[in-house]
Each structure stands twice: as C-alpha cells, then as structure tokens.
Write a structure and sequence with these properties.
Layout lengths: L1 E6 L4 H7 L5 H4 L3 H6 L4 E6 L2 H9 L3 H11 L4 E6 L12 H13 L4 E5 L9 H9 L3 E7 L8 H14 L3 E5 L7 H14 L4 E4 L7 H10 L4 E4 L13 H10 L3 E2 L3 H21 L12 H5 L3 H13 L6 H14 L9 H15 L8 H7 L12 H8 L17 H8 L6 H9 L1 H25 L1
Parallel strand pairs: 1-2, 1-8, 1-9, 2-3, 3-4, 4-5, 5-6, 6-7, 7-8
Length: 458
C-alpha cells in the first residue's frame, strides 16, 4: 500500500500556530529542499495567507505564489478556497470567483481544495467548475463535524455530489481535530467504496487524536494525509510528518519521502520555531492538547478567539459559560460545522448571549444574514423561535444567494483605478479592500524612495 503526504508548514501549520505570520523571506532558503522531499503537494496558499500577506507581512500574495512556484518546479502546489466566499467572509459574484480561480492557476496553483462551511454544494460548484476548466486539480472538501444530523450517510451523500461535479479527489476536513480513529476509518472506507475517488484526510492535533486518526485513515485506504514538519506540528497544527512516515513504514506502507531531506527541513525550521517562541508570537498554549474541543467542539483557533474577546473585556470569569453556550447557539442555528466563517459567527454570538445576560439580545449582521439564508442552507432545522426573535417577519431566502449578486470585477477595477496594476491587484482589492489599498500605497511609496535614492547616486 502506498500513502502520500501533503506538507502544511507553509500554510495551515503556521496559520494554526503563529497566526500566519511567516513571511516569505523566512522560508525562501528551504524551498528547494521542500521540492526534493517527495511530497504529494505543498499547501502554501489560500486560507488566511492572503489576508496576512496584505495586512501584516507587507507582501503581495500573488508575488509570493509566483516565487514559490519558481522555487518548487517539481512538486504540486496546493491552496485552500472557501467556495463562493473565496478567502473572505462573504459571498462574491460568480465572475469574481471564476477570475480568482483562473488567476490562481495562472500564477502557479496545481490543486485547489474547495469547501463550503455548511457543506452546501451550491456554494462550491462555480469554483469547482472553473478549477477543472483551467486544468487544475479540484479537491472537494467535506467539513467534518459531530451532531445529531451528521453521520456516515450524510457525508457520503456530500461526497457523491462532489463526484458528480467532477472533482478529482475528496478531502475530509476535520478542522477541530475531533474525528476519532474509528470515525476516520469508517468514513474513509465508505467514501472509497461508494464514491470511488481518491481520499485525502486533514485533521489537527488539538484534542490529541491526530496521529491515531491518520493511522486508521491510512489503514482504511486513504490516499493522501496532511502533516506538518515536526517543529511546526502538534497542538492546533497537524500531526508531524516524520513521525507519521516512520509509523506508516512500520505498518507496511510505501512512503515516498526522503528521510534525510525531511531532517534538513526540520533543522531549518527549528530556530524559526525558537524565534517565534521567544517573541511570544508562538504561544506554548497552542502547542499543547485541549480536550475541551471533544466536549464543546470548539476548534483551537476559535478557542483562542474566545479567550481574546473575554480577556479584552475583562470577563474571563465567563469563559466556562461561553463554552457551554456555544453548542446551544450551534443547535439553534441548525448545527453548522464550526469552520470559518461559521466558527467566528457562533463564538461571537455565544459570547454576546452570556455577557448580555439575555440570549440574542445583541445579534451580529452576519448571524442575521445567515438566518436570512444568505450563507446557504443550514445543515439542520433552525430554531424558529430564535429566527423570529431576530428577524421578525422578514422573508427567508432559499435559493443560491450568489445568483442575486451583480458581476463585481469590472466595478471593482473602476473603483481602485490606477492603484491596481494588474487583474491580480483588483482581486486583492475585492477580497480585502482596505488592506489591499494600503498595501498599494506602501508599494508606491517604496518605489518612489528607491527611485529617488538611485537618482541621487547617479
């Protein structure tokens, strides 16, 4: 049996541990070794990387992708895309989704892993279609969660819908690390037997289940697993690449990774880990195990957000109440999987309910939009009393929300004007208007300063 590996250190591993604060300059020297290690793919873009590049790292995310592509010509590059949400927190028009996918492939992307937070397949169909048209690999991702309405049958149904769209692979996306070894085995086996496509498994070590879950997934026939080089593994990140390779070799699997190259990669990242620990950007708390996620199904990133919210308001005494309120809010909303953007929305609402001393006294605009049907179809039945309290007699939209949106690319292009030097710049502006415009201004200022300096030297 053969098992392949996707390395996450360039995206999800550092997103989970250091909030995606890893600039290109830090990892550029090791890209050649990453390209030689024998990975199935390098997950290096999408998720929060786009926002972080513009907001915190002063980098053009498109240029980052092009540089990685040039340095890694032999390994497939992979990104995470939130379907109709792209990399943001709202739905975008179809023309914008298609343009974003097309430009991602044009700039070097090979695999686009596409998911919808509600597992509403209407919200990934355009991104999947454009990925296939552009000749890239479309991987449909099922958001795994546990609830009275989520079961093996419902996940296989989603897998079949993805297969019928034309995806090349199915990814099980366990964002909270709550999928146990038995659940992983059963789900992988069912997907392999009934959907008959290659299966990729993604999990986190948040609850301590990660390595066992990936081992059982491999035994059930998983084709690819997501791991992180060991110095950036564990905690809220993925299981360690080297450990999983060692374990699977002992179990009789063919593992196409070069152990010596993996050591070189890990030795490179060790001092970077130490640097982030020293600066405080890598908090030891996120490197540990938090079994609360098994009880409350709160992903590690969501847990840290709740702590930050309550700390900022000097209300950490309410932390346990907020944890207990979170699954109640989730039930009211029809059991959405707690993944971006639903995890943030549910967490903020649970906090508001506890701090106000009254449930749904204060409600975010995002929750209102969700209850109107603007994010898609809820997996389960929404509590109608809650909906009526929040929306009154407002109508609920049941169609595909993106169908109501006017084309947006040309409008945005006109808005940003000459500050955008390419279609990629326009897409950056559409995804994160304020952050992109600020980046364009800084870019122009840098170039003027460089020109002035060069002129003086002459």
């Amino acid at each position: 049996m053969k098992i392949q590996f996707t390395e996450t250190v360039l995206r999800d591993a550092n997103q989970s541990l250091i909030a995606t604060r890893l600039p290109f300059s830090k990892f550029e020297p090791i890209l050649g070794e990453l390209d030689k290690a024998g990975y199935y793919s390098l997950e290096c873009w999408g998720g929060a990387t786009f926002d972080s590049c513009l907001r915190y790292l002063d980098e053009d995310p498109w240029e980052r992708l092009r540089k990685i592509r040039k340095a890694c010509p032999n390994t497939k590059l992979q990104m995470l895309l939130r379907g109709q949400n792209l990399l943001g927190y709202k739905h975008y028009p179809d023309d914008v989704v298609r343009k974003f996918v097309a430009k991602s492939v044009e700039n070097g992307m090979d695999i686009i892993r596409i998911f919808d937070a509600l597992n509403d397949m209407r919200n990934i169909e355009v991104a999947v279609d454009e990925t296939i048209k552009r000749g890239a690999i479309a991987s449909g991702a099922i958001c795994f969660t546990i609830s009275p309405i989520h079961n093996l049958e419902s996940y296989v149904k989603v897998g079949k819908q993805m297969r019928d769209m034309g995806v090349a692979t199915i990814t099980i996306k366990d964002m909270a690390g709550i999928m146990g070894p038995a659940e992983a085995y059963d789900l992988v086996k069912a997907l392999k037997e009934e959907v008959k496509l290659p299966v990729v498994v993604h999990t986190h070590c948040t609850t301590g289940l990660g390595t066992a879950t990936l081992l059982k997934a491999a035994e059930a026939g998983a084709d690819v697993i997501d791991t992180a080089i060991s110095s950036f593994s564990g905690g809220t990140s993925q299981p360690p690449t080297e450990t999983m390779a060692y374990m699977l070799r002992q179990a009789g699997f063919e593992v196409g990774l070069d152990t010596n190259v993996l050591k070189t990669i890990n030795d490179f990242f060790k001092p970077i880990q130490a640097e982030y620990l020293k600066s405080g950007q890598l908090n030891p708390v996120v490197m540990g195990t938090d079994s609360d996620a098994l009880v409350y199904q709160v992903p590690g990133g969501m847990l840290s957000n709740l702590v930050a919210q309550l700390t900022a308001q000097n209300r950490m005494d309410k932390f346990q109440e907020v944890l207990e309120e979170t699954p109640r809010v989730r039930e009211d909303l029809g059991y959405p999987p707690l993944v971006t953007p639903m995890s943030q929305m549910v967490g903020v609402q649970a906090t508001a309910n506890v701090l106000a001393g009254e449930r749904y006294k204060t409600v975010s605009k995002e929750i209102k939009a969700y209850l109107r049907g603007e994010y898609g179809q809820a997996p389960g039945k929404i509590n109608e009393e809650v909906r009526k309290k929040i929306l009154g007699d407002e109508p609920v939209f049941t169609g595909r929300y993106a169908d109501t949106l006017e084309p947006g690319f040309e409008k945005a292009k006109a808005e940003i004007g000459a500050k955008a030097r390419s279609e990629e710049d326009v897409l950056s502006y559409i995804a994160f208007p304020a952050q992109a415009e600020a980046f364009f201004d800084r870019r122009e200022a840098r170039e003027k300063n460089t020109y002035s300096y060069a002129f003086k030297q002459v």
